[in-house]
Specification:
With 115 residues, the protein is an all-beta fold. It has no helices and eleven strands. Strands 2, 4, 5, 6, 9, 10 and 11 form a seven-stranded mixed sheet that branches. Strand 5 and strand 6 form a beta hairpin.
């Protein structure tokens, strides 16, 4: 059984940094396309970054966020720098082997950026 557990969210001020972690159990992360998504209040879930053969970032986070994998820990990270109020959302980790529709999802971690 594959499980994903996110951690690292919190309340920060604009310009601060956070690092989100997604610990994967049940299968090796290298078997998946890994992704970070977010959902802000009243908005649809959107993709933030993915890492597989290639790395993808949505335009609004390019140059500020970095997705990475620690294979030894079977964990995926999202380093978020220069956070902005519009980054406020619940962040979800996902692991896909055949499309996001059938991906495994974590429970989400809240990120609030406010002064």
């Amino acid at each position: 059984q594959v499980q994903l557990v996110e951690s690292g969210g919190g309340l920060v001020q604009p310009g601060d940094s956070l690092r989100l972690s997604c610990a994967v159990s049940g299968r090796t992360v290298s078997n998946f396309l890994m992704g970070w998504f977010r959902q802000a209040p009243g908005k649809e879930r959107e993709i933030v970054a993915t890492q597989g053969t290639y790395t993808f970032y949505t335009d609004s986070v390019k140059g500020r966020f970095t997705i990475s994998t620690d294979s030894a820990k079977n964990t995926v990270f999202l380093q978020m720098n220069d956070l902005k109020p519009e980054d406020t959302a619940v962040y979800y980790c996902a692991a896909a082997s055949s499309g996001w529709e059938s991906a495994y999802w974590g429970q989400g971690t809240q990120v609030i950026v406010s002064s």
